[in-house]
Amino acid sequence: MVRNASLGAMYLEGFEETQTGHWTLKNDGHSVILQVGSGMAVSGGGLPDVYHTIQLHFHWGGPASNGSEHTVDRRRYPMEMHIVNMKSIHPNLSAALDDPTGLAVLGFFIDVVYADNVHFGHISQKLSSVAYKGQATKVKPFPLMSLLPKHNMSQYYRYYGSLTTPPCSQAVVWTLYEVPIYISWSQLAQFTSQIFSTEEDAEQVTPLQNNFRHIHHIFSRVVSASIDAKLLRGAAGRTLLSATSVHLLPVLLLGGFLSGL
């Protein structure tokens, strides 16, 4: 783990505001995706350009297993949320995937407490409408920052990675935040037990569980800590993100969604 003094807080444009129009929540059979439309962007914090926010999605485990895509000191969290942003110079996702820094993904661990997260309720209260593959519903926009650990946004880790399935494009600037989002056990259970990877009229419905990629080795990538990150190792130098799971959900270029496994 290398401390990088140039990695300060990023600028999250429009994240504090309520955007106009409607957002769309969709079950694509691989994840639950919130497409947020236009109006938000991320920059600074060592990013090479301005990136427009296009969607967020989730990874989770099962009723008795955790499902984050990254681990910290071998610990896997119950869930992980990815906010996907595309470099502003690109006209579409296909072009971004040909750029080694075409996408910037903000990753947030999700941990569990006993009280509901009222802000997360903007999403969790809509999950029953997208329980089955192919279902979609409108979501009234809300300030996206209300979901995030807003007082700890300068504490993160950075590395350059890839998509998880063919073409496995080396196109992702990963930013993984140190402080998790907290939701309740009941909100977690809505994902692990009440979302299905099959259509509603399928002969046998299948719960959507464990939609994360297993941990992979870092393969000589440098993992950098921001100037305010706390969980650095000492002189022994053991990396914090041991065997980092480098990875975003696979990409399906369908209907403009960046979609998942």
UniProtKB/TrEMBL annotation:
Coiled coil: none annotated. One of its GO terms (cellular component) is plasma membrane. One of its GO terms (molecular function) is carbonate dehydratase activity. Pfam families: Carb_anhydrase (PF00194). Signal peptide: none annotated. It comes from the Eukaryota. InterPro entries: CA_dom, CA_dom_sf, Carbonic_anhydrase_a-class, Carbonic_anhydrase_a-class_CS. The keyword Transmembrane helix does not apply. It catalyses: hydrogencarbonate + H(+) = CO2 + H2O. The keyword Cytoplasm does not apply. This is Carbonic anhydrase.
